[in-house]
Amino acid sequence: MKIFKEEPKIKFINKRYYAFALSALIILSGVYLFFSRGFNMGIDFSGGTLIEVSFKSPTSIAQVRGFLNQVHLGDAQITRIGSENKFFIKTLASLKKMNLAPTAKMEDIEEYEIVAREIRNGMLSAAEAEQTAAGKIDLNNTAEGEIARFLRDRAIGDEDAQESAKLIIGLRKSGSGIINDFAQLERAGVKHRVMSVLRDNTFLSSFTFLSVEFVGPQVGKDLRRKAALACIWALIGMLVYIAFRFKFLYGVSGILTLAHDVLVSLSFVLLFRIEMSLQVVAAILTITGYSINDTIVVFDRLRDNLKIMKKDDLEAILDKSLNQTLSRSIFTSLTVFLTVISLFLFGGEVIRPFAFTMLVGVIAGSYSTIYQSCAWLKVWESYFLKRKKS
Amino acid sequence: MDKSMTWKVGLIIAVIALSIWLLWPLDKKINLGLDLKGGMHLIMEVVTDDALTIQTDMSATQMRGLFKDGSIKYEKIVRKSFNKIEVTGTLLEDERKIKDILDDDFRDWTYTIGGSLISLALRPNIEQQLRDQSVDQALETIRNRVDEFGVAEPTIQKEGMAGDKLLIDLPGIDNPERVKSLIKSTAMLEFRQVISGPFLTEEAAMKDYSGQLPEDLEIVKTNPRRLDKGFYVLKAATVVPGKDLKSARRAQDEYGAPAVGFSFNSQGAAQFERFTAANIGKQLSIVLDDRIESVATIQDVIAGDGIIKGRFTVDEVDDIVLVLRSGALPAPLKYIEERTIGPSLGADSIRKGLAACIGGLLLVVTFMLVYYRAAGINSVLALLLNMLILMGIMAYFKATLSMPGIAGIILSIGMAVDANVLIFERIREELTAGKSPKSAIDAGFKKAFWTIFDANLTTVISAVFLFQFGTGPIKGFAVTLIIGITASMFTAIFVSRVIFDLTYGRRKKLAKISI
Question: Do the chains contact at A335 and B411, CB–CB below 8 Å?
Answer without folding.
Answer: no
